[in-house]
Amino acid sequence: HIRTLRVPGGSMRALSWEQRSLRLAITIDSFIYFANVKPDHKYAFYGDTLAFVSSTDTVTFWDTITHQSWINHIPDVVDMCGVDEYCIIATMSTLIISNQQGIQCDAQPITLSVAYVTINSKAIAVAASKEIFIIWRFSTPSRQRIMEQQFYADGTPYTSGEGGLHDDTICCITCSDNHLLIGRDSGTILLFSLLNFKKITSINMNTKPYKMGLNSNSRYE
């Protein structure tokens, strides 16, 4: 199951997929509804650069001001996210930090099956599988890399051998300079501090979150 589309009416009569297109036609009662299916394109916009997966094994970095572009061979991209000067690109085996020209600034081999990544302007990147997330302070010209830390989906340190709750897995993540949000299948959203890596609180929703974002100050009060 990938998406759910809710439409008004009582009884669905017919469903048709337009040939060579991404449009659906749905007949409900005496009405016809049209829906456009949007594929999940992998991209990140940061600074003046748009980075996007341009084929199965390449990522294009396009400067939206000068219209210059750089193409890198990066196969098996799972997810990507960018902010200010850097973007993080997750593949099936590596986390890659690239600048606005597509130059690799840091990389971290991984063994977990990463599904989601996020990054903030303080050079902190977070990568998550369905059950574990990693907080990684990557290297920059002004700072050396700091060892990454791993946690279960419920915030328990991975080294403790406890926690995990495998039946309530991670479904989305996002972060700001100070906070990290972990969304889970049950509808629970966990709020963590990126200053001390401690859980602050949890928020219970009535439905599974798909995507999250934080505003410019992301203050929690």
From TrEMBL:
Gene3D superfamilies membership: YVTN repeat-like/Quinoprotein amine dehydrogenase (2.130.10.10)
Keywords recorded for this protein, A-Z: Repeat, WD repeat
Matches recorded under InterPro entries: Beta-prop_IFT121_2nd, Ift122/121, WD40/YVTN_repeat-like_dom_sf, WD40_repeat_dom_sf
Protein name in the entry: Jg26048 protein
Pfam family, one: Beta-prop_WDR35_2nd
GO CC field: intraciliary transport particle A; non-motile cilium
IFT121 second beta-propeller domain location: 55-218
Keyword Repeat assigned: yes
The keyword Hydrolase is assigned to this record: no
GO process terms (BP): intraciliary retrograde transport; non-motile cilium assembly; protein localization to cilium
